[in-house]
Here is the input.
Amino acid sequence: MDITVKILDKRDFPSSDPKRIGKFDTVVTYQIDAFHTYLVTLPKETFTDAALAEAIKKDIEERNRWVGKELKIS
Here is the structure.
């Protein structure tokens, strides 16, 4: 799967994970096209270009698993 994404923003925030109290997470906003913009969050201490690429890849794969599925709600 070759896809080009555009990084729109990168911010560091105190982690909201109770196991990571006192640490920071990096939140990256990325865009696939004009209609598809998403966020991924990684621990700041392990943030690299390669880690970001892998997180985005996993995020896209997870989204694609759900696209087109139909659910019957009763």
